[in-house]
């Protein structure tokens, strides 16, 4: 019985130390989902594939360190095309922000796009260092 209690105490200690190391820092969030409340028909969702060459696994919201970064973005193909458009874009990330990003196409059949920031919010759960 004492061995079980010691094992449980060890797991609790490991769990608590894991929580302490997961405190929120000055990272920012990048979100490429199009906000449905917008009426701009030239805006399309964009997926953040990589930041500074480091590929992401998140599909919706990506955590990023502040500073000058290079985002690899993916936008869905336009009608008549099968391959999505992938593009590297320089982007400055400020600490403790949430960025809502989108792709702007000037014409509905044009593959090329420009990155636009739809909205920027302050993160209240963030600690600036």
Using brief descriptors, characterize the structure shown.
4-stranded antiparallel beta sheet; 1 helix; alpha+beta; 129 residues; 41% strand; single chain; 5-stranded mixed beta sheet
Protein architecture, described:
With 129 residues, the chain is an alpha+beta fold. The chain is 16% helix and 41% strand. The radius of gyration is 20 Å and the shape is globular. 14% of the residues are buried.
SSE topology sketch:
Layout: H1 2-21, E1 28-31, E2 43-44, E3 46-51, E4 54-55, E5 61-64, E6 67-75, E7 85-93, E8 97-104, E9 114-122
Structure class: alpha+beta
Largest sheet: 5 strands, mixed
Alpha-carbon distance between the two ends: 45 Å
Q: What average pLDDT do the residues reach?
A: 82
Helicity level: 10-25%
Alpha-carbon Rg, integer: 20 Å
| Low-confidence residue ranges | 15-22
Shape: globular
User: In total, how many beta strands?
Assistant: 9
Proportion of residues in β-strands? 35-45%
Return the string of H and E elements: HEEEEEEEEE
Number of helices: 1
